[in-house]
DNA sequence: CGTACACCCTTTTTT
DNA sequence: AGGGTGTACG
């Protein structure tokens, strides 16, 4: 049973086993937060005998809930995890509203309005009421009012002070009416209405024994209320969070909730996790320096468990284009010089905003670096996908007139603006929904003021027929396959592929591939895009009736809801080695061996439109703490838009930069590479591998640009590996290489480095498994796995003490007090109890760069080397604890375990043949009813559709790479035309304009 | 009346 | 790349 506690450090154990009924776990980056939370769930189940269906576990992203479920299935087994009420706040609330919404007068089968829907509704209102307010501002304001639980009735009662406020309240009110007429709930409504429900009918959660909340610092007011309502009966709550990682204030998250919770529950216990198992010491130090500029924040220290490692880089480049070039080149340099230690999938580029990806994507495309973009564009927002989803919505949810209007003339049915206007006003006057009105008109029971044209009438008939027969189909299908069957039916009836051909003649294959992906997502009930898995049911409660609907229809609404609630799709892309490009927000909770954070200049970070500078700083902190071994920040000195000079991010003042960063990429000498390998817990690469990599590079150093970011005087304009090298280039390349070789003969290089290792060894008097020179790496590799003590010794070679015992003083589990006093206590105790271990917090001077930059091979080969141990390491003594085999290994650094991308096995691409298109003349619609034979065909095609490439593969900008990848991908013609060329065109256009 | 085409704008972060 | 607007044509 207590295998649950295996691999946890003492602080984590304290948290997991805490008898406290109200528990806060404060978990800084890389401290094993998810591990602790999952273990806590398992512990509560086993030690308190709670039934899994009586435990609610809330996360913020679908990704996080999926990961938790996966981990729990390993930990508790027996499919128990599938019974847990686990999901995002929004999805859990939706579940309760589906089951019990009737108790608060919610109409059955409500749909979810995503932000696009909301915006569209608001735009319409503003137009109708002729108001001056900006639609986006209105939406934002409505959302923040709702997040604080302020309804529009409350605002209406108050006498509004300004005409502007009055205007807003009118929009708010009209918005609420519009949503309710369409039987839609927006994101905030899901929370708000669920809180309503639980307030009025607490018996709905009368079974709940324990409530757990992840990323608590990101909860808003309503979510806080919900947590308490969920836990109303048994008052057992565990939250995990970190105020420093609160980056959702713009969405009304309130860090205050931490103290609010402590006030509400006087017996709150707090446990803090301090050991960082993710990042190198120097990365951690730099991140701490950044976050500590926030003086309002209680100080708190992180304890690195890894060596100092390689100093982070802050790189200046001339322009964003140069930045992108440098970045791709640096990725190549990293891979080449670390001798197969790093793969593409070990790299992440983290951006403040998704739009910054353009230049990087295009550069990677050019250089043949495979990548995937996360965040930003949603798969489900693509035009062709949206059309089909809107049809599904129209079928599931015909009250929603906006959706109806969106597809009523797609593909073109001769139903133009004027006809739509006639229909909507007609419906309004008859006081019925558009759908009912249209039906009456089409079936001749009613007519519009002005008669419709013959063509429009026919089109309307077709449209109606399609939706009606689709409904019929849906009723016939009583299981989870409904969404997919329905999609297939609609695609067939629309002759959708024909439509795509006409609508997007250059791009049809690409878009069709997206449709196939959509089908795959819809068909795969066990792993649909967005379904968090597990069953969607709430446990039955005596005396309470759950609403039951048609199972097929429920499967459909669930599918649509999951799409609305999912940020990005699951794509089992993991078998492909790809660099990840992501927004910082979407990267939360993840880690990579190497992280790039471009565009760290004022206006981007902090963003010019951001209201809360502290939150922007935390964002940078989150980005930096994603890195395990190497961290690169960079920015262009000139803004690419207007050519203005940029100012280095104000979060990176000179005093921090001077101490914590180098100006150019590190030299990957043996020592640095080994340090990286050790942090990643990977075998150290062989010297030969490292040497091999050098030959493919234009230069082994990051010297194509000067440290100030200008193109290097001697360098040739463009290094483009995909083309043949121009003669001039080859010339200078050769020259530069010769210089390299003269100055740094390979034979000397590593001997020097090894001799340093030897010195290091001697002064620490450790590890006899390491010997001298070239044999070091190989011998290490041979022995590495076999002994645990060896691992410890590696870290000592890196020159940093391991801090296993550092957190022992908090093991007792602190109770009461505010967070700040709590932090205060910790801080005080620490400085009193263990001064020598503060080594890592001291500025790393350039002389200690890369641990020992001045002792690099260059100097060593000239006998300049003074093999002294850097001052801040000289008082190191090996602590006996380090030799204990029981060293905790929380959060092992296996990056792929953290990425949603690796979640699933990868089926082989197998172009399906659903494309059985009918040639039906010019009309896209096949008005024939489907026959049994067709049913069979769809059944057959399902088989082949199960194996389909992931959607991320079809990200438009990813396309060029697929082509480069060649025959293995199986699709050679995918969307190249659209992918990059559009951008290149635009860019050259823009340039011409400027010139 | 409906459509096709050319031209403007824009893009912080997300459930 | 989409969305919105404006103009010319069937």
General description of the model:
With 995 residues, the protein is of the alpha/beta class. Among the domains are: 3-106 and 201-277, Rossmann fold (3-Layer(aba) Sandwich), CATH 3.40.50; 111-182, Orthogonal Bundle (Arc Repressor Mutant, subunit A), CATH 1.10.10; 286-293 and 312-375 and 579-695, 3-Layer(aba) Sandwich (Rossmann fold); 379-532, PCRA, domain 4, CATH 1.10.486.10. The chain contains 39 helices and 17 strands. The strands form four sheets. It has a seven-stranded mixed sheet, with helices on both faces. A six-stranded parallel sheet has the order 11-16-15-12-14-13, sandwiched between helices. Strands 4-5 form a two-stranded parallel ribbon. Helix 2 crosses helix 3 (62-76), helix 12 packs antiparallel against helix 26 and helix 20 (482-494) packs antiparallel against helix 22. The longest helix is centred in the middle third of the chain and has 23 residues, at 454-476. The model is unreliable at 526-534, 715-924 and 927-995 (pLDDT under 50). The structure holds a DNA duplex (15 and 10 nucleotides).
